[in-house]
Design goal:
about 30% strand; 3 helices; about 170 residues
């Protein structure tokens, strides 16, 4: 089932997510719905809070060289924790909760993350590049943060002005 995606400035996006304790059918249904929602929205990542569920769960599915996303590349991430990070890289990011806005964001270049699967199995991954960026971006959502909060003061002011104008035009 495709769920509605919360859009900035919805206050629920600022809500910190609580840890998943039950790796049950309702979690599986949430993850399945999140995947369907993410794919329908052409996203590469989605946190549960973005569909209004404050649980520490997220998905990532990076596209291949042709821009296609394959089900076997889907990463379901429950209760993630960054164990180690190194370096710095700037990447142009966007967000399904801040549609049609992109900007350069600085993040760690390499990370080591611990998380659990939908069945509650512990996993650890070391990664860099777009996957490391996606992990950090989605994990920010779990703590109630959006990528626009990382903008400089002037860029953030310009964003807020443009965003308010865009919202008025939609009404």
């Amino acid at each position: 089932m495709i769920r509605p995606i919360l859009v900035y400035p919805d206050s629920r996006l600022k809500q910190p997510s609580r840890p998943v304790t039950d790796f049950d059918e309702s979690l599986h249904r949430l993850l399945d719905d999140m995947n369907e929602t993410m794919m329908a929205s052409n996203g590469i990542g989605l946190a549960a809070i973005q569909v209004g569920v404050p649980l520490r769960a997220l998905l990532i599915n990076l596209p291949d060289e042709e821009g296609n996303q394959h089900p076997e590349n889907l990463i379901e991430v429950i209760n993630p924790v960054i164990l180690e990070k190194r370096g710095s890289v700037t990447y142009t990011e966007g967000c399904l909760s801040v549609p049609e806005y992109y900007d350069d964001i600085e993040r760690s270049e390499w990370i080591r993350v611990e998380f659990y699967t939908r069945e509650g199995e512990r996993r650890e991954v070391e990664t860099d590049g777009l996957l490391a960026i996606a992990f950090q971006h989605e994990m920010d959502h779990l703590d109630g943060h959006l990528f626009i909060e990382k903008l400089s003061f002037l860029k953030r002011k310009r964003f807020e002005k443009e965003w308010k104008k865009k919202l008025k035009e939609k009404k």
